[in-house]
TrEMBL record:
EC number: 5.4.2.12
GO biological process, one term: response to carbon dioxide
The reaction(s) this protein catalyses: (2R)-2-phosphoglycerate = (2R)-3-phosphoglycerate
Cofactor: Mn(2+)
Single annotated GO MF: manganese ion binding
Record-linked InterPro entries: BPG-indep_PGM_N, PGAM_B_sf, Pgm_bpd_ind
The BPG-independent PGAM N-terminal domain, residue ranges: 1-153
Species annotation: Phleum pratense (Common timothy)
Name of the protein: phosphoglycerate mutase (2,3-diphosphoglycerate-independent)
Lineage: superkingdom: Eukaryota
UniProt KW keywords: Glycolysis, Isomerase, Manganese, Metal-binding
Family designation: Belongs to the BPG-independent phosphoglycerate mutase family.
Length: 184
């Protein structure tokens, strides 16, 4: 981990304060769903599609076992559970006064995944982009504009659009060693 377990509360509080300032300027911005990265959306080790499905349900369908008025309330409440861990917080959605999810992904939305780690993002990219996706029932697939921080899989061209081009690597150490006759 690159941050301490339990630091989620501080990060979410800062994020929600920043988003509140944007809303004061007329920007429609708020957290709509969440959960721990190892339990919701970003499986890294096991190719566990249930993890991605929990994220899909919360982010796209606006459905999750936990509903809160704010992300800060969600994280504080879920962190108070015995054995709570930031990475394994269950999926949650933010709801309005009537109990309706405030931000499921719908047709016309833009989605940008900011994670730079392919092992955490390629499964979600498949669910978002593959028309013949069959790992779980997506229920509905919104027509969105999607881009990743990077291209997470060069062979599969996932995602199709990305913010940072893959680096062109020339003269790799393997090429150098072969050229100079180094063998194992």
């Amino acid at each position: 981990r690159d941050v301490l377990d339990g630091s989620s509360v501080g990060f979410v509080e800062t994020l929600e304060n920043d988003l509140a300032q944007l809303r004061e300027k007329g920007v429609d911005a708020q957290v709509a769903s969440g959960g721990g990265r190892m339990y919701v959306t970003m499986d890294r080790y096991e190719n566990d599609w249930d993890v991605v499905k929990r994220g899909w349900d919360a982010q796209v369908l606006g459905e999750a076992p936990y509903k809160f008025k704010s992300a800060l309330e969600a994280v504080k409440t879920l962190r108070a559970e015995p054995k709570a861990n930031d990475q394994y917080l269950p999926a949650f959605v933010i709801v309005d006064e009537s109990g309706k999810s405030v931000g499921p992904i719908v047709d016309g939305d833009a989605v940008v995944t900011f994670n730079f780690r392919a092992d955490r993002m390629v499964m979600l990219a498949k669910a978002l982009e593959f028309a013949d996706f069959d790992k779980f029932d997506r229920v509905r697939v919104p027509k969105i504009k999607y881009a990743g921080m990077l291209q997470y899989d060069g062979e599969l061209k996932l995602p199709n659009k990305f913010l940072v081009s893959p680096p062109l690597i020339e003269r790799t150490s393997g090429e150098y060693l072969v050229k100079n006759g180094v063998r194992t």
